[in-house]
Design a protein that fits this description.
NADH Oxidase; 8 helices; 217 residues; alpha+beta; 4-stranded antiparallel β-sheet
């Protein structure tokens, strides 16, 4: 695996500034950078250390276009609900409007992202046991590592799952075998905007000590 270089940022800088970057330039991303973010994903925890993740690096324009069609159709299915929901915690209506504009931009330009990384699992043992809640434990840590690695390399990325509304069609487009399933698609490219602090609630709003409801101070 590759090692770090001196121009990369620190871990906490990456964590605190890894915004969802939904507006991406169409400029090509070097293959060595994509390999590096994938290697970062492989360093994530894996349930039982089975490492049953698989990653499809999509660069083919026609495949990306087919995925964008489903991605847009999925947004059309839910956009009115998005618009009618209250703003996310700690955000204003104006901030919500900006976020929705970015979501719509990504949807319209999904196929123009230089790279789409489709994150999958094969032979998901947790699902076979009827323990679907455990499935994500073997793929989403890898997804987060990919997002952080992209940020460290100056690449924009965002976690998307909306394609799952049309999962069977997406599986067919990507040629997935019956024992494989997708969990996320990560568009990656050079961002049009700037990285900056993420906006989140304070710890005291969401954390308890020892038991639910005991304020964490």
């Amino acid at each position: 695996m590759t090692t770090h270089t001196s121009d990369e940022i620190g871990l906490f800088d990456a964590i605190f500034t890894t915004r969802a970057m939904r507006r991406l330039k169409p400029d090509p991303v070097p293959d060595e950078l994509i390999r590096k973010v994938l290697e970062a994903g492989l360093c994530a925890p894996s349930g039982g250390d089975v490492q049953n993740w698989r990653f499809i690096v999509v660069k083919d324009p026609e495949i990306k276009r087919q995925l964008q069609i489903r991605y847009k159709r999925a947004l059309d299915d839910v956009i009115e609900r998005y618009r009618s929901n209250p703003p996310p915690p700690g955000k204003t209506e104006e901030q919500k409007a900006r976020m929705l504009a970015a979501v719509e931009y990504l949807t319209e330009h999904f196929h123009e992202a230089p790279v789409l990384i489709v994150c999958c699992l094969v032979d998901d043992y947790a699902r076979k046991l009827g323990l679907e809640k455990m499935s994500g434990a073997s793929i989403y840590p890898a997804v987060q590592n990919i997002l952080l690695a992209a940020r460290a390399l100056g690449l924009g990325a965002t976690l998307t799952t909306r394609h799952l509304i049309y999962e069977k069609e997406v599986d067919q487009i990507l040629g997935l075998p019956p024992n494989a399933e997708t969990f996320a698609i990560i568009p990656i490219g050079y961002p049009m905007g700037r990285f900056g602090p993420v906006s989140r609630q304070p710890v005291e709003k969401v954390a308890f000590i020892d038991r639910w409801g005991n304020p964490y101070k």
